[in-house]
């Protein structure tokens, strides 16, 4: 797989891990005793101090695929321009500026500009959803930019290590935060549920670390590596204080976060404009489906492309509604949702020809059995058996009756 495709599927975080650029060491002009540059901090204004806040001129949205070129290929950002821009923001997370941040702004504004233009467009769909959930949890709205870093706003993004979705949850962490992952669906790809899970993570980490940049860094390397860096720093707690002791990828993660947050707010100041790309419908309604429904049948009866249904429901792994649930809600465009209610009988009738027969069987546990052995024998997973039977542990006993849906 080419580097370009890796960036597409794993977001900037994947790029940081995969490219040599991520580990390139730049000469730092102003450093502390540990050799790490101390950032200049742009304190952003709170919501309570916005009386004199500068406002951006409102203009009509202009889409273009053309790449903006800069003199000598250098993105024209400096500290004074950076500060003049960010002082108008209402961020709760202060944006720092140093050579690390500068080089990521330059890179994303030039070499990565085509992707940046797509992110600006996609953000119109995803950011309102993110902001609603972050606000409900009293979290800084600018945490939404973490998803850009993680997945390039692609719900199907998958990393080499198995992280999936807009927020790139690993299977274990996803399940800790109540995301369902099985052969039928992967809620790490569900826009709302994965964002709610990310919000819970940020909320949890904000109770552990008192620096939002550290909280964000923990999303990349885990709280264990953060604590290790703090110990090695002699008990320091600020991000730039523990910076020298963090994994290389995490050292670049925060500067890239700041760069993306900056550019997605001030791209037009540099003559950059969004690229037009097709986006999911914003006007959607949830409808309740059972395992008797099939997406292809809905497509035929309702006159909607099955690809559009899949796009609105990326958590589904096939055209069949999961058989291990009594019912599930899926998203449909408003007008199609009304038709669904009217024509549900026709959909169910046609679904019979598409939906493979799934038989519920009962397996009686024998002496020496384990969930792993049963799963291997029956062609399913341990987690599926546990879900089908509401098991909280792997403990089973001879004589137990297990429901299997195969």
Task: Walk me through what this model shows.
This protein has 406 residues and is mostly helical. The protein folds into 3 domains: 268 residues, Lysozyme, CATH 1.10.530; 68 residues, no CATH class; 46 residues, Roll (Membrane-bound Lytic Murein Transglycosylase D, Chain A), CATH 3.10.350.10. The protein contains 17 helices and 6 strands. Strands 1-2 form a two-stranded antiparallel sheet. A two-stranded antiparallel sheet has the order 3-4. Helix 7 packs across helix 8, helix 8 crosses helix 9 and helix 8 packs across helix 11. The radius of gyration is 24 Å and the shape is globular. The N terminus is likely disordered.
Summarize the structure.
The protein is mainly alpha-helical and 406 residues long. It has helices at residues 3-18, 79-86, 99-109, 113-136, 145-151, 171-176, 191-206, 212-221, 223-232, 239-242, 248-266, 295-302, 306-312, 334-342, 344-351, 371-378, 382-388; strands at 40-42, 95-97, 284-289, 328-333, 360-364, 401-405.
User: Which structural class should the secondary elements be placed in?
Assistant: mainly alpha
Strand content: 5-15%
Mean pLDDT: 86
Query: What is the global morphology?
Result: globular
Strand tally, please?
6
Q: Biggest sheet, open or closed, and with what strands and sense?
A: 2 strands, antiparallel
Run of helices and strands: HEHEHHHHHHHHHEHHEHHEHHE
CATH level-3 fold name of the largest domain: Lysozyme
CATH class of the largest domain: Mainly Alpha
Strand order of the largest sheet: 1-2
User: How far from one another are the termini?
Assistant: 34 Å
Total domain modules: 3
Radius of gyration: 24 Å
Supply the CATH architecture of the largest domain.
Answer: Orthogonal Bundle
What percent of the residues sit in helical stretches (DSSP H or I)? 40-55%
Indicate the low-confidence ranges by residue numbers: 1-9, 18-36, 43-59
Count the DSSP helices. Answer: 17
